[in-house]
Design a protein that fits this description.
The complex is a heterodimer of chains A (342) and B (344). Chain A is an alpha/beta fold and 342 residues long. Chain A contains 13 helices and 8 strands. In chain A, the strands form 2 sheets. In chain A, strands 2-1-3-4-8 form a 5-stranded mixed β-sheet, with helices on both faces. In chain A, strands 5-6-7 form a 3-stranded antiparallel β-sheet. Chain A is globular. The termini of chain A are far apart. The mean pLDDT of chain A is 92. By secondary structure, chain B is α+β, with helices and mostly antiparallel strands. In chain B, helix 6 crosses helix 9 and helix 6 crosses helix 11. The longest helix of chain B is centred in the C-terminal third of the chain and has 20 residues. The chains are: A alpha/beta (342), B alpha+beta (344). The interface between A and B is large, with 47 and 48 residues.
Chain lengths: 342, 344
């Protein structure tokens, strides 16, 4: 059982002592049920922090954004930034540390073990509530409780929980400076259950499915923007780093390499999503934020899960398990299970 | 022209629209969007994920094709906009008002032949919102109404067992005339029922409201340098959802896309672009005048509630609420406008 008062107290304390310069957490939003990410730097603001089934966001994204913001301004910080992190979010902090995105002492992890109670899938909820839009959501044992204009609605959490939470294997944030909640995981579904279900379709059906998905993509790039591990300064789809000098010719500008065009056509969308999936192989820790934010419901998690399972089966690799592990694609092991590489 | 259509005869009306390709909201993988009509058309949709903006302003449009044979001058082939006549059903009044704003943008000073070429062959059949189509819509506080006919050719109102169709333009009258005997004169009771339902829709409170839209332009100007912009934009992840789903956002990019070599060929292509993308204002020197999240949020909100007012005398935002409901991090344009306008 997680008490929000405990998280608030700890956040207030570390702001008061000056141990951290700010805390990234969640607060009530202005638009209804869902919590929203917030960065607080005053101890009294800690009172506004919340913890409920709408704390979906992986706040390690905000660490990356804050680092980029400071870098752009040419500012350095000598104090760590704190964030509230679920088990999954803490794993993406781990990957960022593995990749030397920042140093361990730059981050203060207020770990929250959700104890397997997970976060809400708003689309599943919409199906169940059929038009009713709740004003708030709360944990209560095995249930989620919603306040709606027609009064309180109580639903078994597993009916409206995000797939990734149903399949979660480690709800406990191993990387932490302080931790709330117990080391418990529910494992309501087997790992990769949604992927396995999907793979029961025949190849031609799967191809038709993905064609339909990529046809629908509008290239708003929310999947990329929301991903803490999509931190490249220049993405393969944005050709913005060509150095232009007075000597640069029109031909040089026109002929700069563009792997993927800006057009939201099916083939270019396919190129974009495949490239992104491959760049996340062995790195994605399945926070599934890309899938949650997609306005046209492309189930991107299936792509990332597929590669996550490959990494696990072929190389025994689990992204975000430990800061001390080398990154999958930049490591070599004498006991690699594959013969061809030895 | 006000006429009655029985609920079961909507598909017959659509079938009677000879020479028109009809579109209406339907679901694909639970995504509501405008697609070619398939019987039965129900018109019981919430807000579609995307507005009907694509019909006149598609996300990708080829302006001309080029081919370059070595040693010869380049050959350019113009592309004519698709001449198909499209009629879009189920358009909500907020999106109808969006159409008017897009028409203004693409015909003021410069007439955009691609936009206008599509637009002249396009008709919108609207659907009155007797209940809000989204939890986050706020049309009434930005000068609109759930029964507005602005930008629409016909407005349909659900009277229970039938629709009442009201034409708003000559094109709308043509569409209704095509229905022939399918449409009948409304009875006095049906006219009263229409008035009653419209009044009820107008009186129904919306959950969200821009506090003082009349003074927003001035207040936003006064508060251009407010630190609130950075504060409110802090959580923004710089994706394009708010702008791509907006019925009135119209920024675009032009690129030459090469589709093959020997001989080199391709096309000049217009694609949507978004002021929320960090590279939108990136100069080739590397300098970026809108380098921060707050400055980009300010641009989006000021365009809707200040610059458009200064240029065309009306707010650009029509209150559909899509940018609010779909924002990954909960940025709420109503909250932003109200907070900035209320600050000293």
């Amino acid at each position: 059982m997680i008490r929000i008062e405990d998280i608030r107290t700890q956040a207030r304390d570390i702001l008061e002592t000056g141990e951290v310069r700010a805390v990234i957490g969640w607060r009530r939003g202005s638009r209804g049920m869902a919590a929203e990410p917030v960065l607080i730097s005053q101890p009294e603001e800690a009172e506004s922090l919340v913890w409920d089934p709408t704390c979906f966001h992986n706040l390690s994204l905000n660490l990356v954004q804050e680092r980029k913001r400071l870098a752009r301004k040419g500012m350095a910080s000598n104090k760590p930034l704190a964030l509230v992190a679920k088990g999954c979010d803490a794993r993406s902090v781990t990957v960022l540390l593995q990749e030397n995105h920042f140093r361990r002492e730059d981050v203060y992890v207020l770990g929250v073990s959700c104890e397997g109670s997970g976060v809400l899938d708003e689309r599943k909820l919409a199906r169940v509530l059929d038009g009713l839009t709740p004003d708030s959501a709360a944990y209560d044992g095995d249930d989620y409780v919603f306040q709606t204009e027609e009064g309180e609605k109580r639903l078994p959490a597993r009916e409206v929980m995000a797939d990734r939470c149903l399949e979660c294997r480690s709800a406990y944030p191993r990387l932490n400076n302080a931790v709330f909640g117990e080391e418990k995981t529910r494992g309501l579904e087997a790992p990769f259950a949604a992927l396995s279900r999907f793979e029961q379709n025949r190849g031609a059906e799967r191809w038709d499915f993905w064609k339909r998905q990529f046809e629908r993509c509008i290239r708003c790039f929310a999947c990329r923007s929301v991903c803490p591990l999509c931190y490249c300064e220049e993405c393969v789809v944005d050709s913005i780093r060509l150095e232009v000098t007075p000597e640069t010719t029109a031909d040089e500008k026109a002929n700069r390499i563009r792997w993927i065009e800006r057009s939201a056509s099916r083939s270019d969308n396919f190129g974009y999503h495949m490239t992104r999936a491959l760049h996340l192989a062995g790195r994605c820790i399945d926070c599934a934020e890309c899938e949650r934010v997609c306005p046209v419901h492309i189930p991107l998690r299936l792509l990332n899960n597929k590669l996550e399972r490959e990494a696990r089966e072929k190389f025994g690799y689990e992204p975000g398990a430990s800061v001390d592990l080398p990154a999958l694609v930049s490591s070599f092991r004498d006991d690699d299970p594959n013969e061809f590489i030895r | 022209m006000e006429l009655i259509l029985e609920k079961g005869r909507l598909d017959d009306w659509i079938a009677a629209l000879e020479g028109w390709q009809a579109f209406a909201p339907s679901q694909e993988d639970e995504v509501w969007g405008y697609r070619p009509t398939a019987s039965p058309v129900r018109l019981d949709h919430p807000n579609t994920v995307q507005p009907p903006k694509n019909f006149a302003f598609p996300q990708r449009e080829v302006f001309f094709r080029f081919e370059q044979v070595k040693g010869e001058p380049p050959r350019l082939t113009p592309v004519e906009p698709d001449a198909a006549r499209n009629v879009v059903f189920g358009v909500r009044p907020c999106d109808g008002r969006g159409v008017v704003r897009m028409d203004t943008v693409f015909s003021d000073h410069v007439e955009d032949s691609f936009y206008l070429g599509r637009r002249k062959n396009l008709a919108y059949v609207g659907l009155a919102c007797l209940k809000p189509a989204s939890r986050h819509c706020f049309c009434k506080s930005v000068g609109g109404s759930p029964v507005s006919t602005e930008g629409l050719d016909v407005l349909m109102t659900d009277l229970g067992d039938c629709w009442l169709l009201a034409s708003a333009t000559p094109v709308g009258e043509t569409l209704m005339q095509a229905a022939g005997a399918l449409l009948t004169e409304p009875s006095a009771e049906q006219r009263m029922e229409l008035a009653r339902r419209h009044e009820e829709a107008l009186a129904r409170p919306q959950k969200s409201a821009v506090a003082d839209v009349g003074n927003a332009a001035t207040r936003l100007k006064d508060n251009f340098d407010s630190p609130l912009w950075e504060e409110l934009g802090k959580a923004c992840i710089a994706c394009g959802i708010c702008t791509y789903l907006c019925p009135t956002c119209h920024c675009f990019d032009l690129n030459d896309e090469v589709s093959g070599g020997k001989p080199l060929r391709g096309g000049r292509v217009r694609t949507w672009d978004s002021c929320q993308f960090p590279d939108f204002t990136m100069h080739s020197s590397g300098h970026n005048p809108r380098d921060s999240l707050g400055s980009r949020l300010r641009q989006r909100v000021s365009h809707k509630f200040r610059y458009f007012v200064e240029n065309f005398g009306t707010p650009q935002c029509t209150g559909c609420g899509r940018c609010v409901s779909q924002c990954p991090v909960g940025i709420d344009i109503v909250n932003v406008v109200n907070r900035v306008c209320a600050s000293v």
